[in-house]
Amino acid sequence: MRVHRSLYKDAGKSVIQPQPDASLGNRSRIGLIVPSSNITMETELPELFRRQAEATGHSYTFHSARAALKNVTREELAAMVSKAADCAVSVSDADVDVIAYACLVAVMAQGPGAHTESESVIAEAARSNGHPAAVVSSAGALVRTLGDLRARKVVMVTPYMPELTKMVSEYIEGSGIQVQDVIGLEVADNLEVGRLDPAQLPGIARRLDREGVDAVVLSACV
Fold it and tell me: Which of 150, 153, 156, 151 is nearest to 169 (CA)?
């Protein structure tokens, strides 16, 4: 696995598909746990689900809890993870149907397979608060989707600094998927990550060694 470095910028996306609660009729409530400096999830997800609502007639509302994170470093990510249960309690007060833990690298920084434990902690916190909810993490969603696609070899773009880019690659490889090539954009400030230009992605992807791969991950960040 090779890791490239680049000054190019982009923004990634993660999509969840909650199971509606029949008691709500034609509406679902989605809870989000996001980094305090995240400026994309609460705009991009509602827009994606607005389009889905137009197509299906099912509507969605969004309810967020924010955990402190300014710079995407191992220390700040660990501190964010420690707040997950408290955030789950806060957002579950809205009696949401699903809780999305929307910080991929905060989970992946804890080591391969950590999404299982993180999702369990969040689910238990919501259940103990009297409002059980389905839970999905962006880290778990990525790994499971690659598994569903039967992807055995991938290439990837991340916005992270080299240490965290390597960590994400190792996390994916820990699930049995080979990461053949990576381009890391080396952006530490999470506000700047949210300002990255997705129009740059096609050009960045062309620089990846895509020979024989099953999937291109653009990018490994929500």
Answer: 156
Q: What is the pLDDT of residues 128-165, one digit of tens each?
A: 999 999 999 989 999 999 999 999 999 999 888 888 88
Residue 203's Cβ-count burial label (10 Å; 0-12, 13-18, 19+) is exposed
- State the Cα torsion 15-27-128-126 to the nearest 10°: 20
Candidate list 109, 143, 146, 221, residue with the active-site label: 221
Which residues lie across from 217 on neighbouring strands? 156
Judge whether 19 and 205 are in contact, CB under 8 Å: no
User: What pLDDT does residue 121 have?
Assistant: 92
Residue pair 139/161 in contact (Cβ under 8 Å)? The answer is no
The mean pLDDT value of the chain amounts to: 83
Phi first, then psi: what are they for 20, rounded to 5°?
-60, 145
User: Between vectors from CA 219 to CA 137 and to CA 124, what angle results, nearest 5°?
Assistant: 5
Q: Which of 34-43, 85-94, 207-216 has the lowest mean pLDDT?
A: 34-43
Choosing from 103, 107, 136, 196, the catalytic residue is: 103
* Whole-angstrom Cα Rg for the chain: 17
Concerning whether 87 is annotated as a catalytic residue, the answer is no
Residue 182 has pLDDT above 90, yes or no: yes
- How far are the Cα atoms of 2, 162, 201, 220 from residue 141, in angstroms, in the given order? 24, 23, 21, 11
Which residue do the tokens 């300014």 mark? 70
Greatest pairwise CA separation for the chain in angstroms: 50
